[in-house]
Specification:
The structure holds 2 protein chains of 2 kinds. Chain A is mostly beta strands. Helix content of chain A is 0%, strand content 50%. In chain A, 39% of the residues are buried. By secondary structure, chain B is an all-beta fold. The model of chain B has no long low-confidence stretch (mean pLDDT 93). Classes of the chains: A mainly beta, B mainly beta. Chains A and B meet through strand 4, strand 5, strand 9 and strand 10 of A and strand 5, strand 6, strand 10 and strand 11 of B.
Chain lengths: 115, 116
C-alpha cells in the first residue's frame, strides 16, 4: 500500500455519461496531482491542488474538473465522456515543501473504459 | 517549459546483462529533480531513483544507478544484472524547482523486455 488511495480501481461507462474519480493522499501530504495515461502513452499532467486550492493546470479538458476538499481528498469529475477518454487515471501526492527533493507517491490508478 | 525525451521506444536485453535507458531533459530552472519510474504490466507506478540537480554524485539504489551528466542534460538509468522481473515500461520524469512548477513532467517511456 503506497498510502495514496484511489477509487474505484475500474470503471466502465457509456459515452455521454459523467463519472467521479476519488483520491485520498498520503497522510501529511498537501498536494494532489492528477495524471491521465492513455493506451501506450506517457503520463499527461492534468491538474494540481495544494491545500484545497488549484495550483497548476495542464492539458485538462473543459469537460473535466477537479477539487480538493478540507480533508485533502480530491475528486476528478469527467463529464460528457467520449471513447477517447478511456485511460488510466493516476493520482499522486506530495508534501510539497517547495524542494525538488520532495517525493511523490502514486496511487494504483483508476482504469476508465468508455463504451 | 520542461521537456523530457526518451528516444528508445523499446529494448530487448538478455537476462543478467546491464542495460542503459536514455533520458535527456530541457529546463530553464536552476534547481530541479529527476526521477525514474517503473510501470509493470499491472499498471502501478513504482519509484526507482531520484537525482537532484545540485547532487554532485550519481544516485544509486541497489541495482539501479543514474548516470547524471548535467552539461549534456542527460539522466540515463542503468540497471545492472537485469532480471526477468525488470520487464516493464520505464519513465523518466522531471520536477521543476519553483513555485507552481512542482508537477512531474514525464517522457514517453521505454518498454524494456528481458530475454531469458
Amino acid at each position: 500500500d503506497s498510502g495514496v488511495t484511489q477509487t474505484p480501481k475500474h470503471l466502465i461507462t457509456a459515452t455521454g455519461q459523467r463519472v467521479t474519480l476519488r483520491c485520498s493522499p498520503r497522510s501529511g501530504d498537501l498536494s494532489v496531482y492528477w495524471y491521465q495515461q492513455s493506451l501506450d502513452q506517457g503520463l499527461q499532467f492534468l491538474i494540481q491542488y495544494y491545500n484545497g486550492e488549484e495550483r497548476a493546470k495542464g492539458n485538462i479538458l473543459e469537460r473535466f474538473s477537479a477539487q480538493q476538499f478540507p480533508d485533502l481528498h480530491s475528486e476528478l469529475n469527467l463529464s460528457s465522456l467520449e471513447l477517447g477518454d478511456s485511460a488510466l487515471y493516476f493520482c499522486a501526492s506530495s508534501s510539497n515543501r517547495g524542494r525538488p527533493t520532495d517525493g511523490y507517491t502514486f496511487g494504483s490508478g483508476t482504469r476508465l473504459t468508455v463504451v | 517549459a520542461q521537456k523530457i525525451t526518451q528516444t528508445q521506444p523499446g529494448m530487448f536485453v538478455q537476462e543478467k546483462e546491464a542495460v542503459t535507458l536514455d533520458c535527456t531533459y530541457d529546463t530553464s530552472d536552476q534547481s530541479y529533480g529527476l526521477f525514474w519510474y517503473k510501470q509493470p504490466s499491472s499498471g502501478e507506478m513504482i519509484f526507482l531513483i531520484y537525482q537532484g540537480s545540485y547532487d554532485e554524485q550519481n544516485a544509486t539504489e541497489g541495482r539501479y544507478s543514474l548516470n547524471f551528466q548535467k552539461a549534456r542534460k542527460s539522466a540515463n538509468l542503468v540497471i545492472s544484472a537485469s532480471q526477468l522481473g525488470d520487464s516493464a515500461m520505464y519513465f523518466c520524469a522531471m520536477r521543476g524547482g519553483h513555485f507552481g512548477n512542482e508537477k512531474l513532467t514525464f517522457g514517453t517511456g521505454t518498454r524494456l523486455t528481458i530475454i531469458p
